[in-house]
Design a protein that fits this description.
Layout (H helix, E strand, L loop, with lengths): L1 H18 L8 H10 L7 H17 L4 H14 L5 H14 L2 H33 L4 H16 L5 H14 L2 H10 L15
Helix pairs in contact: 1-4, 1-5, 1-6, 2-3, 3-4, 5-9, 6-7, 6-8
């Protein structure tokens, strides 16, 4: 299971890029479909939904706890990806045979996070405003606020944005590491959609 956790880390980062922090009770399906439209192939839109449901609460409770949100997101990916365990383990073993996946993830998180800062800032501002002003309580308030977040940030997550994030990642890692990304990327996404995979 530890190997699955490690292989899921990179998938969590990729999924986070695609979906951003966009989710909400009435809009999860749209967010998930957008991830598919942006090239994610490892999951179907329906398989992404429980991952988003699982990921909402930590962001809602403390949007500034990036480490906590990412840690929880990884757990959400693992707990909602049991049907992907063998494929994920195979990907991990293959990728890790090419380069150290965890070292790559450690190198990759800062440039990915830096590129995502405008979206994260917007999402946090929208969320905080909604939490302060929305009169609903509990899950109803969470859903309403996440719908507001979704409405504001999902349009920002475009192919151009994903390519910009991908390019920043490509420039941060070694040529060997990026070669491994180019080799294994097509197993989880349509890399042909992004010019960063030509670097």
């Amino acid at each position: 299971m530890a190997n699955l956790f490690r292989s899921s880390s990179i998938l969590a980062v990729i999924s986070a890029i695609f979906v951003g922090l966009a989710s909400g009770q009435n809009n999860r399906a749209k967010a998930c479909q957008k991830a598919i439209n942006l090239g994610l192939t490892f999951y179907t839109a329906k398989e992404l939904e429980p991952i988003l449901v699982c990921s909402e609460v930590p962001f809602y409770n403390n949007p500034d706890d990036v480490d906590g949100i990412l840690s929880n997101f990884k757990k959400c990916v693992i707990s909602n990806s049991k049907n992907k365990a063998l494929v994920g383990l195979s990907l991990y073993n293959g990728f890790n045979g090419c380069t150290d996946l965890m070292a790559l993830v450690d190198k990759g998180v800062p440039p990915v996070y830096n590129q995502c800062k405008p979206i994260i800032k917007k999402a946090t501002n929208v969320l905080n405003k909604c939490k302060a002003n929305n009169q609903k309580t509990g899950t109803a308030k969470l859903n309403a606020c996440m719908n507001n977040v979704y409405g504001q940030i999902l349009p920002m997550v475009t192919k151009q944005f994903v390519n910009k994030v991908c390019t920043a990642l490509a420039k941060k890692v070694t040529p060997k590491e990026w070669g491994c990304c180019k080799k294994y990327g097509p197993k989880v996404m349509k890399t042909e959609l992004y010019s960063c995979f030509n670097l």
